[in-house]
Write a structure and sequence with these properties.
The chain is mostly helical and about 180 residues long. About 75% of the residues lie in helices and about 0% in strands. The protein is elongated.
């Protein structure tokens, strides 16, 4: 079992490639069979329909394997060595909002620059002359306000019970 877990990404890659090649093969054979039926006569609906159904099923299987592969690679990927990028984090937050299962991967959080990285970038821009002292102070104040808001949100999230998972108090009293 350990070998399977350690090599899951390789196995999913092989399954994706094989399913993709199978999909292409069934589609090509289907086209040839359909042309053959048109030339020689026979049931076009049964021939084309059967190969179309097979192609769609194998294509779906290929997509499932590909999605599992991307998910496995994303979860295995260590992004600590990559610098944070606000733009990338914003794009990933948008994707996570549009496709909720992506939230489990937490990619946006991994790419989001830390407060220290953002402060360092602001200081470098100030030293390079891109920001005035007033602009630097305003950006640092905004950064600190954002940090306080996040901390308050984190504390509120932890302290507030989830109504969906918390048992009804009236039900508890009746017991």
């Amino acid at each position: 079992m350990d070998w399977l877990a350690a090599n899951r990404h390789c196995l999913l890659f092989a399954a994706t490639v094989l399913a993709g090649l199978s999909t292409a093969g069934v589609a090509v054979v289907g086209v040839i069979a359909t042309i053959s039926v048109l030339v020689t006569g026979g049931s076009l609906v049964l021939t084309a329909g059967g190969f179309l159904l097979g192609t769609l099923l194998l294509g779906g299987l290929t997509l499932v394997f590909a999605a599992a592969l991307v998910s496995t690679l994303a979860s295995r990927l260590s992004l600590s060595s990559l610098p944070g990028s606000e733009r990338v984090a914003n794009v990933l937050h948008g994707l996570e909002t549009a496709v909720p299962p992506l939230r489990r991967l937490g990619l946006a959080d991994r790419f989001e620059p830390s407060v220290e990285e953002r402060r360092t970038a602001l200081t470098e821009r100030y030293v390079a002359g891109e920001l005035s002292e007033r602009e630097l102070e305003a950006e640092l104040d905004r950064l600190l306000d954002e940090k306080r808001e996040r901390q308050a949100t984190d504390v509120a999230t932890v302290s507030e019970p989830d109504p969906a998972t918390e048992p009804d108090r009236q039900t508890e009293r009746e017991r």
